[in-house]
Amino acid sequence: MSPSESPRFFSEKEVANHSTKNSCWVLTGTRIYDVTGFLRIHPGGEALILSRSGNDIRMEMAGPPHRHSENARRWMEQYYIGELDTDGSADEIQTARERKKTVDEETSPISKCSQVNLDTVCFENHSPLLTYSPRQS
Question: How many domains does the chain have?
């Protein structure tokens, strides 16, 4: 995520759903990181991260048994994807988006059009509607 973008917000439930080898998210406070791509190269092994996926890892980052360096903390920033929604509005926003999408689909002018049979509309009497005529010089 670039610094100029506004952060995306995710609910606790959504963060908790990303707890597999194929999609692994962790938190530090309210900051969310998608560390799926880092699992294979984590010096302590992927099992350590997977066992903490969907959870706040501030205590693990501070140690014991191993205190992570400032470099490790900076490295983690490349995996930042958004913020934890602490006031419950992420679910409301998602529901609103789904409602808007449904309304847009129902009121779209395209939804009012009948289906077009390309075999009969584009080719009447087996002649194309557009023909190609080379330019004469």
Answer: 1
Q: Provide the residue range defining the domain that includes 54.
A: 8-89
Q: Where are the beta strands (DSSP E) in 1-130?
A: 8-10, 19-20, 23-28, 31-34, 80-84, 123-124, 127-128
Task: Kindly report the pTM of this predicted structure.
Answer: 0.61
Cα→Cα distances 65→21, 45, 59, 61, 62, Å: 24, 14, 10, 9, 9
Tens of pLDDT, residue by residue over 74-115, are 989 999 999 999 887 655 555 555 655 655 566 666 555 666
* Of residues 130, 26, 41, the one with CA closest to residue 81: 26
We report the CATH number of the domain holding residue 29 as: 3.10.120.10
The CA–CA distances, whole Å, from 9 to 12, 33, 78, 89 equal: 10, 12, 17, 9
Give yes or no for residue 21 having a pLDDT over 70.
yes
